Amino acid sequence: MKASHRALLLAALLLPVLLACTAPPASGQHSRGAHESQATTPGPAAIPAHRYATDAALREGMSRIHAALDDLAHYEMGHMPQSIAVERVATIKQATSYLFANCKLDPEADAALHRMLVPLLNGVQAFEKNPADTSTVAAMRRAAADYPRVFDDPNWSVKADAGNKQSR
Q1: Which of 26, 126, 131, 151 is the residue whose CA sits 20 to 30 A from 76?
Q2: Cα separation of 47 and 49, whole Å?
Q3: Using CB atoms within 10 A of its CB, is residue 95 exposed (0-12), middle (13-18) or buried (19+)?
Q4: DSSP letter at 44?
Q5: What is the pLDDT of residues 64-121, one digit of tens each?
């Protein structure tokens, strides 16, 4: 494992614990600490009556995740070399880091996003431990499946099924 991967993994494991004591700022925007501390919110994303607004960073990061998950369908079918699948999963991990650093959402939308990102990152970590296990890709896809039903993002279709057949 590369040193940068070890550092990211260590940060992913320690930040929620360290930042759990950090109260979110009073304003509508939040710090990375608030973003990370809410990542421990359990349960699936609830489908809101009205989808949450997105910002440019959320649309960009989720677009990267969407494209990587689309590509990984080829890996699940045995039509992609493992080395390329590893690259696509790294893209998902980088996109998630991008979201943590740049996404600015209201607290409810932020919590809903974390309910997706935590299982997505769990899938990434499981894949990194055993890239031959394609069920980890399916787990990542399930983690992102509710995104178009929860967030108003024109890059993803609301009619997305539990797979990853959203339109871009």
Answers
A1: 151
A2: 7
A3: buried
A4: P
A5: 999 999 999 999 999 999 999 999 999 999 999 999 999 899 999 999 999 999 999 9
